[in-house]
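Limitations
The structure tokens in this dataset are predictions for the assembled complex, not deposited experimental models. Users should treat interface geometry with appropriate caution, especially where small molecules or nucleic acid strands are included. An illustrative entry is reproduced here so readers can see what is and is not provided.
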Amino acid sequence: MTTIFENLPVDAESLPKVEDINFKSIEKKYLRVTLIASGIFWFVLILGYLAIAHFSDMEKTPFNYLIGSGGVFLLGTFNFIMTILGFKKKKYALRQRDILYTKGLLWHVRTSIPFNRIQHAELKQGPLERMYGLHSLKVYTAGGQTSDLVIPGLLEETALAIKDFILGKTAADGDDTES
Amino acid sequence: METTLNPDFSSPRRQSKVAMGIILIKFIRMTIRSFWPVLLSFFIGGRNNSSFDEWLGYLAIGFAAFNLIGSILTYFRFYFHIEKDAIVIDKGLLKRTHTNIPFERIQTINFKQNILHQIFNVVSVEIDTAGAKKSEISIDALKKDEAEAFRAFILAEKDQIIAENAPDLEIAEETVPEKEERILHLTPQDLLKVGVSQNHLRSMGIIFAFVFTTIQQFTDDFTDTVTDQVTQYDSLLPDNNFVLFLISAIIVLIISFLFSLINTVLKYYDLSLSINKNGLKIVRGLFNREEISINKNKVQIISWSENPIRRIFELFTLQIEQASSAEASQLKSKIRVPGSYMEQVTRVVTTVFPAEFFRDEPQFGVSKHLKHRLFFYLGIVPTIILGTILYFNVEWQALYALLLLPAVWYMTTLYQRKRSFELNEELLRNNSGVFGNAHDLMQIHKVQAVRIKQSWYQRRKSLATVQLFTAAGHLSIPFIDLELAQELENYILYRAESDSREWM
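Predicted assembly:
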């Protein structure tokens, strides 16, 4: 099993393992936020569709109209189902030296960022999130957006605690390297 | 050290007088760039108008006066000097700005010369700082020797400040010889080899894109014009379509070839790469000459690659990716040095990264399933789409689309065979390529995020893709065993978290 480590001066068994961590789920309320947000999106889309259907000559091609509305409806339903099923996959974990976040139903993604590589962290809150008292934690790394991390659906005290924890760790590591 | 500075920078001073001309040209380019639709519409729209010529004259005079006055004022309102370990710049026509850059925040100081700079032997100085979004401050023109003294003074002072703050860390680095050593100089022959072995297909793409976008801007009914033109010849050449095609293909090939050759000469003329105590220095270019300094600590990924033509010349393209502070300076974060021999690649790698770790390690290949997936997406799907489209147009000749399958199979097989990674306690190396070979090397403690991805397909085969992000670009290792991926993740996180060396 310890295939890569044969030539490394480290015992693989002794390393902390990401697979063994207990990940915490984000707040259940956040599911409602996402559902409302996509509900609004699909509502606007269907409204637009109806408007087009209304103002164009629908009587001539009622069949096309049916296919179109069916397609939109199916896509919307699919989107809702995926959101609900995928919600369980959104989990985060804090370790002594890094922060981890997993997501994705069809495509699993797990991102880990060491504290000593974090540039900056901040809390964000959209209007819907504010209604439910939730925050998103955004973690910035150097050099572009691709490796930045957003953990949504956190209660204010959790989010603040995590942020302070991260920033404290980042600053502490900075001190280590300076002296 | 502080008193030996030859030209005195301690009191506010202006740039070299040539700056006026250089600012003027910058101004003209800026105004043309922002007003060219207006200018163009005047030019085209007013043709039939009798008073139009008069108008145009006034416009031109106004335009010229605006630029001239603007550039002269800009010149006279720009002051810079050094004050208490910081560069101070005062500038601005109506809104005065006062910028103060402490030495320790300066990352690098780069020189740039366009053709005007070269004629008057001045350079434009670009000061790259850490932190702020808009982190680039430039001085448009300074005499070359003054600029060099300026830079040497600032960098020496900066080193001293850092050394005072962290005595034990920095002194060890001072033992590296201070002298600059030039390790690569692109001779005209090498330049020619590089030009000849460029990716001409890409030039072709650029030319096509350029031609079509420009033409579309001028006439929307371009396609009609072309069809008109082409149909004229239809009667003349009823069955010489093939000859016509061949001739136009050859013309396009020649143009693309010349385009990439000229491009290479303009960009990489008289390229030289040298090593000094902080890292690397690159000077290159014909009309626009630029000098780029690369700090060792900031280098995140070093790549070298070859294509089949380059292999004949034994040339590699070396690419150095460095962390850069500003999003705007994306161009500067990836520095390419074409025409490097293996010896020079090795030299650069061993200078920037710890030399003892640059060695061959056992290679870990990627799963065969990668080939199958790639073949599905790049081979089967396009063949079906292409075949269907062709079938409706030419019926049974659509079977030619099947020829795509063996070609894609061959290429994906090559790719899967060459894709591998090597790892030791300091470096991770990625190997890839289809017809050529490419290698990327990263120092693993510089990784700032690890991402493991699994698609639905990969989960069934218990495979995963690992992505390693650095402050400049990322490497990815696709389709390896999930267990291996997790071991890699654990190890790289451990290395990044336990290493207290500088990483950018």
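Some entries come with short summary sentences. For this one: Residues 174-179 of chain A have pLDDT under 50 and may be disordered.
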